[in-house]
Amino acid sequence: MVRETTPSETEWLVMEVIWGVEGDITASEIIKTLKGTLDVSARTIRVLINRLLAKGIIQYEIDEKDARVYHYYAVKSKEACLSEKQERFVSSYFGGNSTLAVASFLEKSSLSDEQLSELEQLVGKLKEGQKPDTGGS
User: Fold this and answer.
1) Segment (H or E) for 11
2) pLDDT tens digits, 68-119
3) End-to-end distance of the chain based on CA atoms, in angstroms?
4) What whole-number distance in Å separates Cα of residue 48 and Cα of residue 77?
5) What angle do CA 11, 13, 15 make, to 5 degrees?
6) Local structure of 9: helix, strand or coil
7) How far is CA 97 from CA 81, 93, 100, 130, in A?
8) pTM of the model
């Protein structure tokens, strides 16, 4: 079994908080931010933080004034995690065949003419060797 190095679905919510701040954030601040969004206890959120540490996605520094306070920060970008998740998904469910994965999604989607046009532009840029801008809808 290959060791997981990306956030699980629930861990992803914690990472969204960490990625969303400039610099670092404490566990208490993460818990406060997720209160109402994630229906789990503070203890569970601390477990999620520890799992993210074990996966090497985040790291921490101990507070200079209070050794009980840890300041967490991301060492893996959101883009890197998304890329790994995509690769693992295509490998697991489509035998590594990206074309089959894309075709499957397209067949199951009801895309507007505008969205199809965006996809055509994306494919054109990929053919030209340009890095596509996927920040749209």
Assistant:
1) helix 9-19
2) 999 999 999 999 999 999 999 999 999 999 899 988 988 888 889 999 999 9
3) 35
4) 17
5) 70
6) helix
7) 20, 9, 5, 21
8) 0.77
